[in-house]
Amino acid sequence: MKIETVKWVNGKIRLIDQTLLPHKLSYVMCRDIKTLWQAIRSLKVRGAPAIGIAAGFGVALGAKLSNARSPKNLEKDVNKVISYLATARPTAVNLFWALERMKRILLANKAKSVSGIKKALLKEAMDILKEDRSMCREMASFGSKLIKKGDTVLTICNAGALATADYGTALGVFYKARSQAKKIKVYSCETRPLLQGARLTTWELMMSGVDVTLICDSMAATLMQKKKIDKIFVGADRIARNGDAANKIGTYSLAVLARYHKIPFYVVAPSSTFDFSLKSGLYIPIEERPGCEVRRALGKRIAPDKVKVYNPAFDVTPNKLITGIVTEKGIFRKPYTETLKKLKSKVCA
Ligand code: MRU
Fold first, then answer.
1. Which of 20, 29, 64, 258 has the fewest C-beta atoms lying within 10 Å of its C-beta?
2. Helices 114-144, 71-85: crossing angle, 10 deg rounding
């Protein structure tokens, strides 16, 4: 089955409602911007690249819904949509990257008619989706070279088809390795509190026939101690120009464990996930989510109602713990402050 996480359908944005997986595969139709904003905030659509793609379409939808009769008024309406969507979630830079791209198109086309501007915005949103598809394929080609026949790999959260326009970043590497007849075994951390690993990664890997085993997050250390893990591959939500990488909470613990057990630790992310304006991971804004997500699991209360909760959605893995960063332009290694300059020069015109 082809997973179409985000799709423009008859002038609306269709999203797979990821909060209902794996029990139910159903879709949310976003006919207005508020529905899209809520879908991003509530993780109906999630994963850095997918959030960016959805936001691109959000701007196109905002333009489509505008009743403005002049390009000037349309520009005002679209800018409001851009500012609003930028408040949906703070960490994945792909959201801001996509909104910035849409803003540039708005500016570059402001001399056109209202309908010309609307068309240009929709085309840009489509291009963001298409480019994400090819970036997934390119990352997978580079990343799969790191995998040997029979490897056992570990991942966290969901960096697969459900997080992108194609078959994912970290999971794309696994799909590609398998297509090269390298039989691999994947361990998926369940990823508390919202269980993206248990609900989404196992679902999509099983559907593709990849050998996947689910573990609780606390079981990763013992697997590494027993020498059951050859390599770790994770996605990212924002990478600073020194290579520090924010990803789902729990990623940093895996990186520390990997260093102790001498296991290679790779981050797989497209250039749209890099924030070259940030000197280090210290400056990456980390989303804190409501306490109820920790007090409850799958809608059921598992802790005293009023217990205090700390719930950061992401953590930052320092560059020194990262063996390599796989991008669509190749694999980058230490010293990242130097090597990532090359990536920047390739992707920033
Ligand atoms: O809170 P989420 O589910 O949006 O977090 C997603 C992740 O942390 C992913 O690993 C990351 O966005 C990379 S997806 C290719």
1. 29
2. 40
Q: Model pTM greater than 0.85?
A: yes
Question: pLDDT tens digit string along 328-348?
Answer: 999 999 999 999 999 999 998
Ligand 1 touching residue 52 (CB < 6 A): no
Place of tokens 């992108």: 164
Q: How far apart are CA 116 and CA 24, in angstroms?
A: 39
Ligand 1 atom nearest the C-alpha of 269 is 15
